[in-house]
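The methods section describes the discrete structure representation at length, but only in general terms. What matters is that the chain and its backbone geometry are given together, residue for residue. For illustration, here is how one protein appears when written out as sequence plus structure tokens:
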Amino acid sequence: MWQSLPQFGTAVLYALLAAAGYTFAVALAAGAGRPRLLSAARFGAYGTVGLVGLAVLTLCYAFVSHDYRLSYVSRYSDRGMSTAYQIVALWGGQDGSWLWWLFLVSLFCGICVKWMGRRYRELQPYVIATMMTVVAFDAVLLIFAVAPFATNIGGAPSDGAGLNYQLRNIYMIIHPPSLYIGFTSAVVPFSFCVAALVTGRLDNEWIDASRKWMLFSWLFLTIGNVLGMMWAYEELGWGGDWAWDPVENAACLPWWTASAYVHSTMIQERRGMLKVWNVFLICATFWLTIFGTFLTRSGLIASVHSFAQSSIGNYFLGYMGVVLAVCIGLILWRIPLLRSEGSLESPLSREAAFLGNNWALLGCGGFIAVATTWPLISEGILKYKSAVGPTFYNFWLPFPLVCIFALMCLAPLLGWRKTSPELFRKGFIWPVGAGVTLLALHFAFAGMLRMPPFVKMPNLYPLPGADALAKMDTVGIWGAKLVHYIGAIVAFVNGKLPAVVTFLAGFKIAVVIQEFVRGVRARQRAAAERKETEGLFWSLVRLVNKSRRRYAGYIVHVGIVLVYIHFAGRVWTTDIETSIAKGDTLQIDEAYTVRYLDSRVESDPEKRIIITELEVIERGVVVGKIMPSKFIYKSMGGTMSTEVARHITLRDDLYATLANVDPQTELATFQFHVNPFAVWLVIGALIMLLGALISLFPDVQDPEITVWTYMRSATGFATTAIFCAMLVFWPRVTTGPPL
């Protein structure tokens, strides 16, 4: 069989397309009045999963056995790569990564079918049918567009071209699978939503079924995006972790709608409101996963992450159109059944805060989507080429993002329906005091911390010069002045936001502590009334266990506070590019000095390595050494990569990259960045994951708990364990080149 591996792999793809089509047809028949066929549909789903798994194993075997008859294998691997990277190369390019994508989609379909068991009998046929349409679309792409089992026309080369050096990174092993899990698992809540719309069963049944699946998807979207930031920070060498690259933006778009949904679903469960809104958010999240994939894989927008331009974009455009039309049609059909059972009674209510938060989240996501696709819009509609860069995003987005932060701080203090003035005052005393105290400390120690609360931000839209204004008519002059003054207001507000973030951080942490303290005290009072004794630790554990969603949400919010502080730290960054002679020192800022000790050249079978050694001096004390380097890959025509070196503390991240070294004089050119609170991104993400996992973990008293439910939670816990291990070893692996 292995002598005809390409033909075998292609045959498996055709077989899984046929299996998905069969399962779709049988599931529809089961929903149309033949319930006995539901078992056949379930077994058909399992069979489809098995065939996809067989296709993945076949391509994996081709990589580890160096079967260079396959074009994809020869383009993304070579004999010098380790077995681990041979497997990673499976998702290193267009063809294999889409097969991996299909594998994850089908795997979640199989897990969902097993998890449903005998529940949701009326929804099951349409859930399965919807999932099979997604599997079938992915299979069509694999057969007719990307073809992972296509062979080289000129025969098998003796060796492959090798995996791109930027992908030979620990984050490449876990970043794409994590992000793909977030994208592909969104098919489950989408399928429940479609099934509820088709059957008209739009009570809380489908919400209960889809809520944890959407939270699971949100969890892995968060993990995938954070890992992507860490990969960009360490591999691209530009000194930051989010460059507003089009593919980065596309990856985060579903996160905004998923975040909105996990909040607004609580309003529907408690008040019977926002039914249309929740249906829209689930459909939008799934559609944005397809849209983001389209931007990444069509090659229409230039990016360091995107794949080459191909005909795959035409398939995606057609599929996105079909999904959009079906969703709009179903929602309009079921509008009478989606009417709210309650109404917004007061602007000072938790519902109002959640709704405002939802609109702000969607506003930010919509802004990013339009700005990301602006090159296509300007060229296709306005007939000229235009694009926006990081400066544009960094100028316009801080204020709405801080508004989201403020609403997140406010919502837990408000009651459902309306908030009494007395409750309002009691809830706000301690948080406001904490926020003011932290802000006062910020002002008092700003000089010592090198973090002024107010900063001067440049206006992105300066007023044109006198000559340019003289050439404009009256309307043009007034328009230019209006844009300039709006820009001046935005720049002024942005300059005050660091102080606002400081206040809100103290406010939010106090809110969380206050909520936990109130809950623990209530439990201990209740125990005392029963004449029982309950320790502080067990009161806390039982409090969280009893109201897992509520208190897990507070934990997630603590992580978000740290992430906000991380991004606020970007305004205090120090950036230097300079040349240093061997033995000389360079003062980077008030805290850090570096001494250039030595440079050398080493080699291994894969690459030549130029290593420089720098001594790090913090406030007059030698605290360590870092070794920024250059890798020159022999098998890739001398392609060079920049290997970052970092000195990490809780306060700062001293980030160094090597530009070049003169071999005669050993004069070296470096780029240095001092990034405040860089590591807080990882710490904040870990806390967010902990909260999400607490919310996801099944209730052991639930009689419907199955092994598949535990697997869903265990997947998240395993990923978090990887995060923790990376956090422990992170300072060690970034001080020098990974030889």
Notes: The mean pLDDT is 84.
